[in-house]
Amino acid sequence: MPQRIETESRKLLGRLRSALAEDSAGQARLDHVVQIIATSMQTEVCSIYLFRDAETLELCATEGLATEAVHQTRLRLGEGLVGRTAERGEVINAANAPARAGFRYMPETGEEKFVSFCGVPIQRLGQAMGVLVVQSREERRYTTDEVYALEVVAMVLAEMAELGAFVGEGAALSALHQRPAMFRGLIGQEGAAQGTVYLHEPRVVVTNPISDDPDVELERLRDGVAQLQASIDALLDDNDAMGEQAEVLETYRMFARSRSWVRRMEADVENGLSAEAAVEKEQSMARSRMMQSKDPYMRERANDLDDLSNRLLRLLTGQGADNGELPDNPILVAKTIGPGELLEYGKVLKGIILEEGSVGSHAAIVARAWAIPLVIRAAGIVNEALNGDRILLDGDQGIAHLRPEDTVQTAFADKIAMQARAQERYASIRSEPAISKCGAVTSLQMNAGLLADLPSLENSGAEGVGLFRTELQFLVRNKMPQRSELSALYARVMDSAKGKLVNFRTLDIGSDKVLSYMKPNDEPNPAMGWRAIRVGLDKPGVLRMQLQALIRGAAGRPLRVMFPFIADAREFADARAEFEKAMERERRLGHPLPATHEVGAMLETPSLVFAPDQFFEDVDFVSVGGNDLKQFFFAADRENERVRRRYDTLDSSFVAFLELIVARCAKAGTPLSFCGEDAGRPIEALVLAALGFETLSMRPASIGPVKHLLRRVNLDEVRRVIDEARAQGTQTVRQAVTDWLVYQQD
Ligand code: PEP
Ligand code: MG
User: Fold this and answer.
1) DSSP string, 545-613
2) How many whole angstroms from 528 Cα to the centroid of ligand 1?
3) Which of 3.40.50.10320, 3.50.30.10, 3.10.20.340, 3.30.1490.20 is the CATH number of 180-201+324-418?
4) 63-67, 165-169, 365-369, 604-608 — which one is most confidently predicted on average?
5) 127 C-alpha vs ligand 2 centroid, how far in Å?
6) pTM
């Protein structure tokens, strides 16, 4: 980099710093800044455009264009060269601007005199905030070094806007981070919550973008990088880092050791930025470059670089080590979070909003087990939210309102109050049975997976645990749990159930549930691959250990065990034989055997519905895993947002299929339950009960609404409505049942 520009750039930053230190505020400060830039760069025009809203840029300050145009001239995103600079997040450097595609001349500014144009995006962490523009009469292409100086200045401007330095003059100048914002994501867990943002990893705020002494800053930067490299090496040396985790760390190591990354930051510091501002500048620029890439792998790497830069920023500023106390009603906002980290927060969280994640992710499973409203894939929220911001979370629609307006706030408060009233209504029938008008009683049970779920047995009025997903205990650890740990845990689960029955489902891993400490299987279609009982039977070590732990945990009490994903009668027979062997072994070892034991199968594949009669006679009970069964019935991946809602559970064909399951179990006198998510949806629950499912197992929060509805209807009539709708050849019975229900309410 030539010496002149280097010193110019540093000089420019020095002058900017004095401008910022003055006590002029808002517009006066902004005017001063453009004037300094124009003079230092010897260019006739310097202007700053800032976003007024997500789509509109407004001229907020200018040196050289008509001052009357300030706060009057507006451009849509993508409009003109300024709009294009903002849209692409890239520099546009045009010696002859009018000849450039997309050029749009705005007469009110008097810019027709100026031929050359250079626009530099003002952005922070890839988030567009505005555009810094220089223009001149002479046809000239701004040199690389000049563009560089502008980028450095844009970085400083981004920090100033962030700090609210210009707040107070004109709507466009109000700091971005004070505007209300809405984020539309996907439903992870229903429910509404209002509270205060708590960032899982708070953003570092750079308060000193311009350095006093480049030598000191260089040393700080190098120290920081060295510490960062050492911390990544230490993580990699940790033997626990395996599989995907190790891959991520390797990428981090590669970035952390990248000479060009470090060199670019050093150059920024030499040009007058503080060490942390340099890190952030490179992070912003690399992010916007990588996010433009069509290659999803590259876009994913932008997240890695973000993570790495944030670590370095935390090292340099000391921020983030202590994220402060949890506020009242904390709503956790994170890019992504592991189940272990989530468990550490505990149930105090009122809601969770993630930028990534899927419905089946482990964090989502934990949030669901806790019945904490969760929104996933809320893109961009981590950059926008600040600790302490007010936030409303609408888990029923997958929406978050950050810093909401009063009207939104009021509507939301009404919604929460209505839900609270409904909860009171449900509480009043908590100890009543789900007895319908026809006298039929449906047993309502709850799904669980953590010891922490057990108190819900009492609160919800569930009659037992219809499904205890044992894999959660395996998923939230970083190494295989030991038999003694497991048997102690199962014993505590049974203690907490206080005599109510718990259906323990043996380990269901594979598919989306991958244990970090087991060798990953690279399968083309894991949901239909080597999962659940298939793993248990092929590599029986873990299954045997788990069965032993269950028998020991029961310690003489009644025990119910069910095997997941049984696709044919032989698999069930083999699994049951493993259970019998475990019983025999325990007996020989002198451990007390369960008072009674029942061994069931989860029906999750259509094949099992057509198993020989003998299977239905042999099995002690059948539990329909509707989530899996439905995905295989319709061949529609439950994890794929494009198709997972495409087919209705109440589709007449699926209803006919469920009816067949009821008939097969009834013929053999085998108890039958349904434990997929659909059991917790009132209309679905009604249809299931009317079809003959005597037990439904669901999230604890669903028990109240389902019971309330079941108690109000006559299931024989529901059955008649279903049959009539089917006789008419309807695609789904939902409409008929819903219409009938509405009529009931009149
Ligand atoms: C199911 O498939 O419906 C089920 C209950 O099991 P999981 O959701 O854990 O696969
Ligand atoms: Mg399943």
Assistant:
1) HHHHHHHHHHTTS-EEEEEEEE-SHHHHHHHHHHHHHHHHHHHHHTPPPPSSEEEEEEE-SHHHHTS-H
2) 14
3) 3.50.30.10
4) 604-608
5) 40
6) 0.66
